Amino acid sequence: MALTTPKTYQTYIPLPSESGGKYQDYEAFLSLVPIHLVTNASQLPKEFLFPSCKRQLVIGFDCEGADFGRYGTLCIMQLSLPDAIYLVDAIEGGEDLMEACKPALESSFVTKIIHDCKRDSEALYFQFGIKLHNVVDTQIAYSLLQQQQGGARSPHDCISFVRLLADPRYCGISYLEKKQIHTLLRQDPNIWTYRPLSELMVRAAADDVRFLLYIYHKMMEQLNEQLLWLLAARGAMYCRCFCSSENGYSEWPSIPTIPDNLIMEGIAPEEEILSIVNVPPEKMGCIIGKKGASILAIKKSCKAEILIGGVKGSSDKVIVIGPLKEVRKAEALLRGRIDARK
After folding, report:
1. Which of 115, 122, 176, 137 is nearest to 309 (CA)?
2. CA 38, 51, 216 angle in degrees (round to 5)?
3. What is the per-residue pLDDT across 206-245, written as a single tens digit (0 to 9) for each?
4. Contact 205, 64 (CB under 8 A)
5. Average pLDDT rounded to a whole number, residues 30-40
6. Beta strand pairing call for 305-308 and 317-323
């Protein structure tokens, strides 16, 4: 009996053109790379499995799953490197494969480029005990760049990945396949659990990470030192915001501190903090309000990010992230809504 040859996949990764080791003018060239379906750690590159200060690694990163969050199922973890894309199959590879990836995901020597890390981090933490660390979140970076360029902070600053890709300052492309996947997920929320993965699912998974390295380089060159610190600090706080346990966040790495040179030069931004407001379950409706009117009004009145765990997470907590004074203001407004209906 003839053996069936496993189907192979390839895709193009846009990378900034290089000159003398430096990225100039962000003229992209397209590099044709393989897409590897990974079920065993031996299929992953050694520089990823064994992080080292001698070789700093930057990767595009994302996760897919069913009912994604702490209670769902993480199915696929995507890694994008300049020479290949790896789709790490958490269903087929199981806990052994995810345990092998843990050192890299928690390492300071591996920078993970991701768009909206919150639910990915929550799933990794509660399903595999992985504390996602050292991320650059392109959703946060986009918001900071908008503010740096004079835009006002808005409760609606959380740009989607589809909209980010469509922005001509970054990629300027349409991501039509994403709409197909969203349609399939509405029809069957468990579609990421089925094996073998269809070609559409493989390509959709790869598409979610293959642009990230290019976007990362374009964004990083635009951010000043203050915003680079804010990006790192908020990334660390977003990774843990839905991951509180009985010990709070004591198991997690420290939040990056304000650089000494910014303090010495007198241009240090205000300290950023993460705060959790516990809300009695019967009071959450008062916080949210009719059609979300109450929580939207609170968001508009303070320059802080306000997050609610919802059905996928901790439904009795409101998480507030931002400058210290703005977080305290948000806390007061939230507690006012809780106390007003006693």
Report:
1. 122
2. 80
3. 999 999 999 999 999 999 999 999 999 999 999 999 998 8
4. yes
5. 96
6. antiparallel
